[in-house]
Write a structure and sequence with these properties.
The protein is α/β, with parallel strands linked by helices. The chain has eleven helices and eight strands.
């Protein structure tokens, strides 16, 4: 069962399952706890996993004033402190990976390691134009179903569209009782598109694993590789047949990869990072 926890000015919706080393999962644009369901189900036998709804998504309200990645990173830190988690392995995807980077920079004592899926340090012109297109689309689409069907063309592989996976995801989103207002999607996009960590990433001193989808046309492998090159000692891997969200399309493969990474770090003879 989930609960709201107080983090600064916000009551943030969180869910925590499992037992073992702590893991914090940070979702991307408009994504809620449910976006991590394959991980909450598949890894809870080995980890204590915490997921939460970002500000302005799901069951967490959007406060007034500007939205920034720094504020969302502080929200994530507040969740860990409110739940009494001293430090965690942190995994984030897309916009959530940007929040995870900022969390490691602003609150390094809370982060044991990073898994960054479909990430970037600064949007290049292509990604910036795509973000502006999505910003327009969320307001211009004739309905939520149409928006999701068109938006998901960029997020999931043709395989997932053709085998019915995307259709199921659309139905699940439409049935969710806490839809995200278009304005909140746009405010999140604005925050992600203006944020940059390029000059600060070399300060990250925890083990980092950067994953890219070979078929991802948004956070493309070259953007992910640039992040890995900037973080000392970071690992980089391309999942050639996957797109933006392989943790949903190929959860068993994705879970196995990050589980192996975390197990290595949690081994008794693992070196002390940093």
């Amino acid at each position: 069962m989930g609960q709201h926890v107080r983090a600064g000015e916000l009551e943030i919706w969180t869910e925590q399952v499992g037992s073992g080393p702590d893991v914090l999962l940070i979702g991307g644009l408009g994504d809620t706890v449910e976006s991590w369901q394959f991980q909450l189900d598949g890894l809870a036998d080995r980890y204590r996993l915490t997921a939460f709804d970002n500000r302005g998504a799901g069951r967490t309200a959007m406060p007034g004033g500007p939205v920034s990645v720094a504020a969302m990173a502080d929200d994530a830190a507040g969740v860990l402190r409110a739940l009494g988690v001293p430090a965690a392995h942190v995994a984030g995807f897309s916009g959530g990976s940007i929040i995870a980077q900022e969390l490691a920079l602003r609150h390094p004592e809370l982060v044991r390691s990073l898994v960054l899926q479909s990430t970037w340090s600064v949007p290049d012109p292509y990604l910036r134009s795509w973000g502006r297109f999505v910003r327009w689309l969320v307001g211009a689409a004739p309905g939520e179903r149409e928006f999701l069907e068109w938006f998901f063309l960029f997020i999931y592989t043709p395989r997932a569209h053709n085998d019915g996976t995307v259709s199921r995801f659309v139905d699940e989103v439409l049935a969710f009782p806490y839809p995200q207002p278009a304005e909140n999607v746009q405010r999140h996009l604005d925050a992600f598109l203006r944020h940059e960590t390029t000059d600060r990433l070399p300060r990250i001193a925890v083990p980092t694993y950067v994953l890219a989808g070979g078929l991802d046309v948004t956070a493309r492998p070259e953007l992910c590789r640039a992040v890995a090159d900037l973080i000392p000692g970071a690992r980089f891997q391309v999942l050639e047949e996957e797109s933006h969200q392989p943790f949903q399309e190929a959860p068993e493969q994705w879970n196995a990869l990050v589980d192996a990474f975390w197990r290595e770090l949690d081994a008794p003879d693992a070196p002390n990072p940093g």
